[in-house]
Amino acid sequence: MKNHRLPQEVNAGSMADIAFLLLIFFLVTTTIDNDEGLNRLMPPENEDIIDIKQRNIFKIVINDNDQILAEDDIIDLENLKGQVISFIDNGGLSADHDDFCTYCKGDRLEDSSENPSKAIISIKSSRNTSYPVYVAVQNEVVAAYNHLRNRESLRMFGISFEAIHREYFSEEIKNDKKEILKDRLEIIRELFPQKILEPESINN
């Protein structure tokens, strides 16, 4: 009578231990980048909104036909940035006012924004507005803020705002230098705070 050997069982206990150790290894060694998000300072809400003067709101509307209206006038996308810059940089308050903008280089019109800290950009889209046009409008508005921030950063620190921002997030930057860059970024952001209001879509 022949001896029939039973198949040898594989010990799966050690495999579970190895898998657990690998899981711990990847959890410890993997780095996850933190999302910066959009650096935007939203305008006041609720009852505070009634205190905002109309001259301090620059209205941009994108209609169903993807036409861009700035202050009710149809404009081309390439002209939007310049109009936003003129509005934010207007500095319309008189020199004897407490909030007079000493660094503004605009026309100081009485019917445009009083101070960059008060200026609000309102972007309103229609339900049928195409997404690429909406994003393009947002990009032009942000580009206007970056233009003004770069100008003041170059004047004050001899380096653009964008260059400071890149250096701040560099992996090689030392902590003491990082704190200096952080302070400079905050100074420029206070001069030109990015206030973008995006109301709900409109119905045409």
From TrEMBL:
Keywords linked to the UniProt accession: Cell membrane, Membrane, Protein transport, Transmembrane, Transmembrane helix, Transport
Highest taxon listed in the record's lineage: Bacteria
Topological relation to the membrane, as annotated: Single-pass membrane protein; Single-pass type II membrane protein
Entry keyword Cell wall biogenesis/degradation: no
Principal location: membrane
Membrane spanning stretches: 12-32
Subcellular location: Cell membrane
Pfam families documented for this protein: ExbD
Annotated family: Belongs to the ExbD/TolR family.
Name the UniProt record assigns to this protein: Biopolymer transport protein ExbD/TolR
Organism name: Maribacter sedimenticola
